[in-house]
Design goal:
The protein contains 18 helices and 23 strands. It is α/β, with parallel strands linked by helices. The chain folds into two domains: 274 residues, P-loop containing nucleotide triphosphate hydrolases (Rossmann fold, 3-Layer(aba) Sandwich), CATH 3.40.50.300; 236 residues, Rossmann fold (3-Layer(aba) Sandwich), CATH 3.40.50.880. The strands form five sheets. The protein has a nine-stranded mixed beta sheet with strand order 13-12-14-15-23-22-21-18-19, sandwiched between helices. The N terminus and C terminus are likely disordered.
């Protein structure tokens, strides 16, 4: 068992070869889970090679979702994998971009920090990278560092140089490098090709970095003779060539790694003791995902559905909530731009629940509102997140309160902005990092659906938005049956709305998907899926209610 006294931190660098998007984030999160399960204090850092300061202003159709930490950092979506697998909260110090690093160095140069020296990539940029890599030095036993991109990318070279220098300074027993490479199967030839992996390892060695473990991503099983060939030509031990085949669920990856002894190999190379590995709870969770008792179909209505990574945390929150309810959530993807009052029945017919997703801007808003009216009037479970909650307020104000031109100030000028700009946002010019970001408190009203889900009076949830429910309309909304079931402790900001006369209609201003964790899930997603499952069982005329994990 690892000691919890302050000790020298060990470092694991994970780099990609051959192709991007082969799963470095999942590999880091899975390895982190195994090492944590053996008793070590583990954290994971992500270094992104793009020049944007953070992904906050990037198009979700290109970059995927923006993951927000408790301390308000807009970060890469891989931090979501780290949190979900490790069941810990990351911070702004767990993610760095080339933009942040150069910005910091340039700011120092402007302040005269370098005393007139010529500022260069080496040593100044690499020193700043190393400073960030070692930020948690002494606080954790093991720090896993994911370097974005692929070996050979010009953008990633300073990070590889920093990793080389840190390995030289700390020694090979304190720093190891893992290469995650794609091993393609050529269908016409009927064989796996190792040459791309060999080239990736060779290119890494040209940077002065020797990969000690090679993880082989593959769609086909890699036979022993192929692993032997990779080991020989990449200069690694044969037992350190580990295949990572495609699996049914990403949560199975730690189990696959454990079977192939990855964690014990890593600990041996870092000269650390291998304590007992406990994966029983995790294995039961995976079994629930792979073998659910039933299914339930829920529609996800959003503007970015053509790129599912735009809603990555929502997808995973449904996986967690499904497992807890012993069912599989099957998502029906609906582009809100395609929804009208004329076709909403066709698009949402037979659905057991609807989640209206977050987003920004006026595009697709009327489609979201049409979908919300459909589920509200038919008693279908509804869950609105951020913009989805705001659209629910607009729909209710229009169709229940009788304010025909109710709208959000974000979309158009209107006499009735039931959603309006936060007062401290009115003079904001720079869009990056200036929204209400990070964890804020929310007081729950006793007896409400939100209170029953959380089973506590005060919660902290993560935000990413500029607009709020306009308090000038609160009384009118409440008079017509809308409940403000969650508010800021000072009662200034509405955080959660729900409807009295509806089986399950909840909208939240925050992003609960960002705090859903593997095994434990998130209370609102768990109860939403349970409500959808209850509707399905009622429609089928069965009382075979699923027994959730207790």
């Amino acid at each position: 068992m690892a000691s919890h006294t302050k000790r020298k931190t060990k470092y694991i660098f994970v780099v990609g070869g051959v192709l991007s998007s082969v799963g470095k984030g999942i590999a880091c999160a899975s390895l982190g889970l195994l090492l944590k399960s053996r008793g070590y204090r583990v954290t994971i850092l992500k270094f992104d090679p793009y020049i944007n300061v953070d992904p906050g202003t990037m198009n979700p159709l290109q970059h995927g979702e923006v993951y927000v930490t408790d301390d308000g950092a807009e970060t890469d979506l891989d931090l979501g994998h780290y949190e979900r697998f490790l069941d810990v909260s990351m911070t702004r110090f767990n993610n760095a971009t080339t933009g942040q690093i150069y910005y910091e160095v340039i700011q120092r140069e402007r302040r005269g920090y370098y005393l007139g020296k010529t500022v260069q990539v080496i040593p100044h940029i690499t020193d700043e990278i190393k400073r960030r890599m070692t930020y948690f030095d002494g606080e954790y036993d093991i720090v896993i560092i994911e370097i974005g991109g692929t070996v050979g990318d010009i953008e990633s070279q300073p990070y590889l140089e920093a990793a080389r220098q840190l390995t030289l300074e700390r020694g090979r027993s304190a720093c190891i490098t893992i290469l995650l490479a794609y091993v393609p199967f050529i269908r016409s030839a009927g064989e796996l090709k190792t040459k791309p992996t060999q080239h990736a390892a060779k290119e890494l060695m040209e940077f002065g970095i020797i990969p000690e473990i090679i993880l082989c991503r593959t769609e086909h099983r890699i036979p022993k003779e192929v692993r032997t060939k990779i080991a020989l030509f990449c200069n690694v031990a044969e037992d350190a060539v580990i295949e990572l085949p495609d699996v049914e669920t990403i949560y199975e990856v730690p189990i696959i790694m454990a079977r192939r002894n990855l964690d014990t190999i890593v600990l041996r190379k870092l000269r650390l003791k291998a304590g007992e590995l406990e994966l029983d709870t995790w294995s039961r969770f995976v079994a629930r995902i792979k073998n659910p008792r039933t299914t339930v179909e829920i529609a996800l209505v959003g503007k970015y559905v053509s790129y599912h990574d735009s809603y990555k945390s929502i997808i995973e929150a449904f996986v967690h909530a499904g497992a807890i309810n012993n069912c599989k959530v099957e998502l029906r993807w609906i582009n809100s731009e395609d929804v009208t009052s004329e076709n909403v029945e066709e698009l949402l017919g037979g659905i057991r629940g609807v989640l209206v997703a977050p987003g920004f801007g006026a595009r697709g808003i009327e489609g979201k509102i049409a979908a919300i009216e459909y589920v509200r009037t038919r008693n279908i479970p509804f869950f609105g997140i951020c913009l989805g909650m705001q659209c629910a307020v607009i729909e209710f104000a229009r169709n229940v309160c009788g304010i025909a031109d109710a709208n959000s100030a974000e979309f158009k000028r209107t006499r009735h902005p039931v959603i309006h700009l936060m007062p401290d946002q009115e003079r904001v010019e720079h869009k990056g990092g200036t929204m209400r970001l990070g964890a804020y408190p929310c007081a729950l009203l006793a007896g409400t659906k939100a209170h029953r889900a959380y089973n506590q009076e005060l919660i902290f949830e993560r935000h990413r938005h500029r607009y709020e429910l306009n308090n000038a309309y609160r009384s009118l909304l409440e008079e017509h049956g809308m409940v403000m079931s969650g508010v800021s402790p000072d009662n200034r900001l509405v955080e959660i709305i729900e409807l009295k006369s509806h089986p399950w209609f909840v909208g939240v201003q925050f992003h609960p998907e960002l705090k859903s964790r593997a095994v434990s899930g998130h209370p609102l997603f768990v109860h939403f899926v349970r409500a959808a499952l209850r509707l399905k069982l009622n429609d089928e005329g069965t009382d075979d209610v699923q027994n959730p994990i207790e």
